[in-house]
Amino acid sequence: MESVQAIKQRFGIIGNTPALNRAIEKAIQVAPTDISVLVTGESGVGKESIPKIIHQLSHRKHNKYIAVNCGAIPEGTIDSELFGHEKGAFTGATQTREGYFEVADGGTIFLDEVGELPLTTQVRLLRVLENGEFLKVGSSKVQKTNVRIVAATNINMFEAIQKEKFREDLFYRLSTVDIHLPPLRERQEDIHLLFRKFASDFALKYKMPTVKLTDNAVHLLLKYRWGGNIRQLRNIAEQLSVLEQDRTITAETLRSYLPTTGSNLPAVIKTSKSEGDFSSEREILYKVLFDMKSDLNDLKKLTMELMKTGNVKDVEKNNEGLIQKIYGDADEDEADYEDTSEETEVLSIPEHLESMEDIGSTQDKYHFAEEIEEEETLSLQDKELELIKKSLERHNGKRKLAAAELGISERTLYRKIKQYDL
User: Fold this and answer.
1) Cα separation of 149 and 127, whole Å?
2) Which element (helix H / strand E) includes 291?
3) Which of the residues 252, 321, 352, 378 has an alpha carbon 20 to 30 A from that of 418?
């Protein structure tokens, strides 16, 4: 059995993090068997290296190794891609086609992004894992295949199962052995080592001097979150190698290439709602209704006790907390209605003012009062007469136009004119 260090050199894996070494150790141990393996980890952590290690160290290494990106194949054709189809099985199927499971018989299939498989395809895949049997699309003939399946995903499979997007029985078939690759932010000691390796590779590729980081730039590199993991780090190294004239990269230069959303600073994330945190008006209404119902039940309880005992003092003593809950603090309520006659001056208005001096002093004392002159109101009859006159004046005595403006018939207008002697 090859050592972990030898496997790293053979497959070009950089890093000494214990979690990475443990993942490689697992791959070495399961390689000689035919156990199904599920590789988990975020996008860009290098999950595709594990299936290659498993295949090359297994007895299947002389047979085919096929990597399939399940998320890149349309849902309508994925069954045909994996299991093949017969001629005329669907529109465009002009000839019989072998699927990946038939082509890779005796070898290894790597199903990348297996969590993106449709549910119908998951049923077919489960049958292959159970007894090695599959059906081509449009065929009724059962075929056998002897392939080893290594799957990988970057989604939370338990959440997918809970949302009924992935079959639980298939998950346990695939994850006989689970190999987890840590994200780059958890491999602090490997970040600078990987950057140097990428910078050296790109310098050789583009025939340019190798870029180097200052101490501040290295510190920034280690503190960055790296949401895209190794893939993002590799892209940054390539950009710096191609675009920067100065081959010594400072922290300011490096920061201009890093998205601002990738900070690795600690943050408190609120994952659950508090009791007073309402997400919608409906929740507020529900809480109000529930509180009202609770208060109503408490009032029913007090009323029932009063009806049974008839002793107000005993009921008040035994239910002091309940009364406090319903009515609040009685002292505060009474405070709102305290007699303030001693502190507040009550203004009195004299009924008769004897002299102009009294009038003057009163005006000084009530200078803020506003005098309102009441307008003389017209009766309904006077208003009607005035409207008819104005309408006739506007239309030069033409009764038809005046009647239309007033919204009445010409006969009614004529009768009004006779009534008011116009």
Assistant:
1) 13
2) helix 281-309
3) 378
What kind and span of H or E run contains 215? helix 215-223
Most confident region among 39-48, 255-264, 285-294, 373-382 by mean pLDDT? 39-48
Tokens of 379: 């009766």
pTM, entire model? 0.61
Q: How far is the CA of 344 from the CAs of 133, 233, 337, in angstroms?
A: 97, 77, 14
Do residues 249 and 219 make contact, with C-beta atoms less than 8 angstroms apart? no
Cα(87)–Cα(80) distance, integer angstroms: 11
| Residue 189: its H or E element | helix 188-206
235-271 residue pLDDT tens = 999 999 999 999 999 999 999 999 875 455 555 555 5
- H helices of 132-206, where? 157-162, 168-174, 188-206
Q: What is the DSSP code (8-state) at residue 368?
A: T
**Can you say whether the dihedral through the CA atoms of 166, 163, 40, 193 is positive or negative?**
positive
Both structure tokens of 296: 């109503």
Those residues whose C-beta lies under 8 Å from the C-beta of residue 17, and which sit 6 or more positions away, are 182, 186, 187, 189, 190
For 306-352, write each residue's pLDDT tens digit: 777 777 777 777 777 777 766 665 444 444 444 444 444 444 444 44
Task: Outline where DSSP puts E strands in 50-129.
Answer: 65-69, 84-85, 97-98, 108-112
Rounded CA gap, 396 and 324, in Å? Answer: 78
Q: CA 399, CA 412: separation in Å to the nearest integer?
A: 10
d(CA 150, CA 111): 6
Report the candidate in 222, 162, 187, 255 with the shortest Cα–Cα distance to residue 42: 187
Dist. CA 196–CA 210, nearest whole Å:
9
Name 66's bridge partners: 109
Q: For the chain, report the end-to-end CA distance as a whole number of angstroms.
A: 124
- Core vs surface per residue 311-347: b (16+ CB within 10 A) or e: eeeebeeebeebbeeeeeeeeeeeeeeeeeeeeeeee
Q: Where are the alpha helices (DSSP H) in 49-89?
A: 49-56, 78-83
Contact (Cβ atoms closer than 8 angstroms) between residue 99 and residue 87: no
State the Cα–Cα distance between residues 307 and 25, nearest whole angstrom.
78
The token pair at 318 is: 């035994």
- Residues near 230 by beta carbon (within 8 Å), at least 6 away in sequence: 44, 45, 46, 184, 194
- Dist CA 42 CA 52 (whole Å): 18
